[in-house]
Amino acid sequence: MTEVPDGVVLPSPSPAGARWRESYDRLSGRDPAALESDELEQLAESAFWLGRPREEMSARQRAYMRHRDAGRSGDAARTAWLLFQNHFDLDEMAAASGWLKRAQQHAADVPGSAEEGYVCLGVAVWTAYKGAPDEALAQAGRAADLGRKHVDRDLTALADACQGRILVEEGRIPDGISLLDEAMVAAVGDELSAYVTGWVYCLLLYTCQEVGDIRRAAEWTDMAVRWCTARGQQSWYPGLCRLHRCEVASLRGDWSTAEHEALLATEELAPFGDYFVADGWYLAGEIRRRKGDLAGAETAFRRAHELGHDSQPGLALLRLARGGTDGAVSSLRVALAGRPGTPMRRGRLLAAHVDVALRAGEVGAAHHSAEELAEIAARTQVRLLVAMAARARGAALLADGEVEAALPLLREACADFRKLSCPYDAADVRLLLGLAARRAGDEDTARMEFEAAAAAFDQLQAVPDAQRVAALLVPADAYPKGLTGREVEVLRLVARGQANREIAGALFISEHTVARHLSNIFRKLGVTSRSGATAFAFEHDLA
User: How far apart are CA 19 and CA 73, in angstroms?
Assistant: First the structure.
């Protein structure tokens, strides 16, 4: 078991939890054949809150058969919808599809009912998953209409949240978030059943993080965690809330807490499906990569991949950190050629591609990805994407030697990341600002930017980045043979086996400039080859 870190509080049993336990113990000890349909439904709900999804579905299937055999089409439709959702949430799509068809058959017998609304909701979820957003929106809209007609608050809130999620995925973010907020007000106001309250919390938090609305995610996450502690019991809701809190903590630089929470979430979510667990491993991998624990990051990314999570861009950036530039470029090309995904998903891939393309010396490809990222940011107006796009465009321009054009973009990105409370990203941009100032001949500003970045990286324990900035801060007269700071940067990369093109990308300079630096290095060291320069670097602790 993963050790519980300081400051992390696991939920303790609540009166509601004791009631679920009593109900489960009383009903599970009896012969299922002797239970009435309402007792089977109660057993299913008890099993859900006690973290027993297979037992939940088994009891619900028996309840469904009772409803069906008794000719209760409405009850059969609603129970079949719940079974669809159970299997869908566990990523068991064949079973989910079968139960949805059964739900539709029963709903046809009760047109215009609330039960039909729940089945419409299931169809919306399914068609959105299949890539038909227009049909999904129409079905969710029908569900919302039926929810309001029958004053069914659960159905109305779920339908609003579902519509909001689909709109966000289609890039209509303000409209989508507005509907999710409306559903959330009902959840916070204790107007909904516990099951639906948890569902709405999860949908909103997941969506806020997908669109980079960090402040909103943090605000709602705090409320969700309090609710889960009091009401979530051993269902999947506490683990999902922990994952959401982990991602917020990671963006805000609280990496130790975030990693512990991610690993705790993998344990809490283990009974509910591999892909939930995979999310926790991926988050842990990203944190480890930034801290310089490359072996630990690879273990986490590979574990996430085994469980069905796409480990890009994390795995490509890990390869880049190890010097595998070509592999990183290839991985991201494949990822970008796949399904576009959400704006944030696509944006993260594009931002990573800018970095690996520049490191590989493919400045044109970096510009192309930076411009696509800027288009997404302009269309969605997501603040995090806007900051990411400004940083990407600034980095590509800096690599082209367009310092004056790069500076305002980098300043904009730094300001936005600071307002969003993203200290790592802000420090990363400050490093670029320092390089730009140095290129412009403003050494005082360059040093101030490097020092600010170094302080942030040290506080975050971002070891690789801290080491890189430390090298940029070493006084020129501290190097042997009259080498300059820039020449030492080039020499270090030569010693790592990088080609001129890769060095140019890493330092945001042209290949011609790299060649000139190499000529000066060879002359100062009295060597005639890269191997001779590499030997000098290792002998003088410059590698």
Answer: 30
What is Dmax (Cα atoms) for the chain?
94
Give the type of residue at 455.
A
Q: With the C-alpha atoms ordered 372, 378, 380, 382, is the resulting torsion angle positive or negative?
A: positive
Question: Quick check: 465 and 454 in contact, CB under 8 A?
Answer: no
- Domain spans in the chain, listed from the N-terminal domain onward: 15-248, 478-543
C-beta pairs of 482-490 under 8 Å, 24+ apart in sequence: 482/524, 483/521, 483/524, 483/525, 486/517, 487/517, 487/520, 487/521, 487/524, 488/542, 490/514, 490/517, 490/518, 490/521
Give domain 15-248's CATH superfamily. Tetratricopeptide repeat domain (1.25.40.10)
| 253 or 141, which is more confident | 141
Helix (H) or strand (E) holding 154: helix 153-169
Q: What is the pLDDT of residues 398-452, one digit of tens each?
A: 998 899 999 999 999 999 999 988 999 999 999 999 999 988 889 899 999 999 9
Instruction: Give residue-wise pLDDT tens across range 344-387.
Output: 889 999 999 999 999 888 899 999 999 999 999 998 888 899 99
| CA neighbor of 356 nearest in space, from 321, 406, 390 | 321
> How is 469-521 classified by DSSP, letter by letter?
HHHHHS-GGGSGGG--HHHHHHHHHHHTT--HHHHHHHHT--HHHHHHHHHHH
Provide the token pair at 158. 């779920």
- Read off the DSSP letter of residue 32: G
Question: Computed over its alpha carbons, how large is the radius of gyration of the chain?
Answer: 27
Q: Which two tokens stand for residue 502?
A: 């890769």
For residue 222, give the H/E element and its range. Answer: helix 214-227
* pLDDT 10s digits, 162-183: 999 899 888 788 888 889 888 9
478-543 shares the fold of 15-248: no
Give me the architecture of the 478-543 domain, per CATH. Orthogonal Bundle (1.10)
Q: How far apart are CA 541 and CA 543, in angstroms?
A: 6
* Interatomic CA distance for residues 121 and 200, integer angstroms: 14
Task: Evaluate whether 145 touches 116 at the Cβ level (below 8 Å).
Answer: no
User: Is the link from the previous residue into 313 a cis peptide, with omega within 30 of 0?
Assistant: yes
Task: Using the CB atoms, write b or e for 478-505: b if 16+ within 10 Å.
Answer: ebeeebeebbbbbbbbbbeebbbbbbbb
Owner of token pair 């609603």: 78
Supply 409's token pair: 């973009």
Which of the two residues, 216 and 136, has the higher pLDDT score? 136
Separation CA 479–CA 471 (nearest Å): 11
Contacts of 80 (CB under 8 A, 6+ apart): 64, 99, 100, 102, 103, 106, 119
Q: Which structure tokens are listed for 458?
A: 């040290």
Distance, CA of 419 to CA of 404 (rounded, Å): 24
Q: How far apart are CA 172 and CA 481, in angstroms?
A: 59
Contact 11/229 with Cβ under 8 angstroms? Answer: yes
Q: What is the pTM of this model?
A: 0.74
Strands, E assignment, 311-453: none
Round to the nearest angstrom and report the end-to-end CA distance of the chain: 40
The C-alpha angle 375, 501, 505, rounded to 5 degrees, equals 40
Average pLDDT for 115-139: 95
